[in-house]
Amino acid sequence: MALFNYASREITLKVVYYGPGLSGKTTNLQWLHEHLDEARRSKLLSLATETDRTLFFDFLPMDLGNIGGFKVKFQLYTVPGQVRYDATRKLVLKGADAVVFVADSQRAMRDSNIVSFENMKENLAANNLDYKTILFVLQYNKRDLPDIMPVEEMDADLNERKVEVIESSAVNGQGVRETFDAVTKLLVQEANRRQKMYEQGQVSASRALNTKVGTARMGVKSGKGGEAETSAGQQNLGTALWNDLKPSGAEKAAPSKLPPPPSFTASPDGIPELVDQLTRLIEERRKTEDEILSVLQDIRDRLA
Fold first, then answer.
1. C-alpha span between 287 and 275 (Å, rounded)
2. Sign of CA dihedral 201, 211, 282, 257
3. All domains of the chain, ordered by start, with CATH?
4. Class of residue 251 by CB neighbours under 10 A (exposed 0-12, middle 13-18, buried 19+)
5. Burial of residue 212, with CB atoms counted within 10 A of its CB: 0-12 exposed, 13-18 middle, 19 or more buried
6. Per residue in 220-231, pLDDT tens?
7. DSSP secondary structure code for residue 22 in this structure
């Protein structure tokens, strides 16, 4: 889900490039990293395995405006394409706001595309993400090679949702920026839609925040119930955010490094304190995820 940094006033939206091995996911991220503004992107980090890699970096564009007073930052990831790294693919997909599926257009890769696509659906479900509603773009890569499938044939296999398709040759940079622009446009449109619904009173602050792309606003509008309704809304907001951040499932078995649920005064005066506590909570969660990635990298270095 979208991450909010109240100190820097940024929303971080996570985009995952998925697809079979050697379909061009890594090439996409490498090209983007090389051609995006150096001053607005982080280093390209890699978790290398014997035959595959997971890449990721952050990018903060300056031409997208803001949402509810927050700047928008994108976090781009690839997943390893090999079946043997399915646990890593599932981990990388966690919390994704949008997915780009990179399919190999070569006819010989048809079965691999389908297997990877079905695996993506399974891993989305395992992360409580709905394939039918998650923001999604298809990239048909390697269109410069011989013996490729026509777009109509690939659509029959992969495009049951009738999402936008970008034809590409990532090794030449063709279609790479167009794919990135397509998915970021979807993300910003959805965030703005949620923001507008909140401002029009169609959804509460807690419901708007408890979505894959939520509003950046922390305020709670009072309704007919006056102060009592406002206080209840603040409590629901804190509960919703805590439930999104706390460990679940297998994570509960191990000692958690996360602090206990934040407590705050259920009144308008308590909002600044709530924001501070939730900011610290999110930062602690990020530190924990960084430690997990560091351990994974160390394990792979030992296996190499």
1. 18
2. positive
3. 3-189 (3.40.50.300), 219-303 (no CATH)
4. exposed
5. buried
6. 233 333 333 333
7. T
E strand or H helix at 86, and its extent? helix 86-93
Where helices occur in 109-173 by DSSP H, the ranges are: 110-126, 151-158
Tell me: pLDDT of 254 over 50. no
Residue 29 and residue 18 in contact, taking contact as beta carbons nearer than 8 Å: no
pLDDT band at 7 (very low <50, low <70, confident <90, very high): confident
Q: What is the largest CA-CA distance in the chain?
A: 67
Rounded to an integer, what distance in angstroms lies between the CA atom of residue 223 and that of residue 243?
25
Q: What local confidence, expressed as pLDDT, does residue 6 receive?
A: 76
Torsion 203-209-214-216 (CA) sign: positive
- Tell me the one-letter amino acid at 156: A
**Tens digit of each residue's pLDDT (9 = 90 or more) over 188-247:** 888 888 777 767 776 655 455 444 443 333 322 333 333 333 333 333 333 433 443 344
For the stretch 28-84, pLDDT in tens is 999 999 999 999 999 998 876 555 567 877 888 866 767 778 888 999 999 987 767
Residue pair 15/61 in contact (Cβ under 8 Å)? The answer is no
Torsion of CA 170, 172, 177, 183, to 10 degrees: -10
